[in-house]
Amino acid sequence: MPDPAPGNDANGNRAYGHKPFKRSRSHFADRITADGRDGWPVAAGRYRLVISRACPWASRAVISRRLLGLEDALSMAIADPIQDDRSWRFTLDPGDRDPVLGIRFLSEAYDARETGYPGGVSVPAIVDIPSGQLVTNDFQQITLDFATEWTAFHRPGAPDLYPQAHRAEIDEVMTGVYQDVNNGVYRAGFASSQDEYDVAFDGLFRRLDLLSERLTDRRYLVGDTLTEADIRLFTTLVRFDPVYHGHFKCNRFKLAEDPVLWAYAKDLFQTPGFGDTVDFHHIKEHYYRVHSGINPTGIVPLGPDLSGWLTPHHREELGGRPFGDGTPPGPVRAGEEVPVSGRP
Known about the structure:
Elements: H1 10-15, E1 47-51, H2 56-68, E2 75-78, H3 107-113, E3 125-128, E4 133-136, H4 142-148, H5 167-182, H6 184-189, H7 194-214, H8 228-244, H9 259-269, H10 280-290
Parallel strand pairs: 1-2
Antiparallel strand pairs: 1-3, 3-4
Helix pairs in contact: 2-4, 2-8, 5-7, 5-8, 8-9
């Protein structure tokens, strides 16, 4: 997660809310491409995607990988939602080690790439299995490359999530969503002054109002199919009521109180590849237990009621073709299912 300090040291976690929030840039911005121009050619079985289901940035990669059908080409490691001062850890696996990389902490892959790297250890991250080295933690670029560079390994019927004809509009929409929504909730939640909070809060809800208006008469953000823009907005919306509304003080309204955004989010949640990757238990455990600077008791709230995610949304009445000329992904890969505890 390229947010909380970059998230991994205990003192950093306690500092949230006590110093101005600034998102770190991705230090390792190498790209895995079809032509291998950065030294990392696309290849089936060579790389491992490391994610946390708690992290919205990592969740983008999980959704994209599933929609495009990259499971056979790119394996996935799921980290514990609770970090400690040694970084994201693999305590969900037997022996507390990732079974493919053989490491206990993601920081080991960072160290293999750059000894003594002073920055935070973030997800999503892609690791080169043969060398054990981190390849990239560029959360903005990873999913775009999944859509455009990994095409040789897309499943039959995979959607075009970054269609050439709409890229300028997708980029424009994603820029506003990133600045005011994806990043805005963190700037509000980790604000160290009232003025800082007020600016983030106002920007967030001004953008949500605009998005609600945009989505009133169209099913998706750009064009009539799912795109990268929808993935990026969804991963924040799905966390809004469980964590951002209360924990981050983003409380002008709940997502469930905006009829358009709530129906839009439910539509995506009920679309194969979206809701079946969401683990609400991991989300709440991470935010409320790791961000000790703004929740020092570590108490995790029992709510909200999640059953509404499965209720009718009626967005199909707006038309649209979720997968364009393609098809939905098949069942979730064995071993990658979200546990019952994390589902509505």
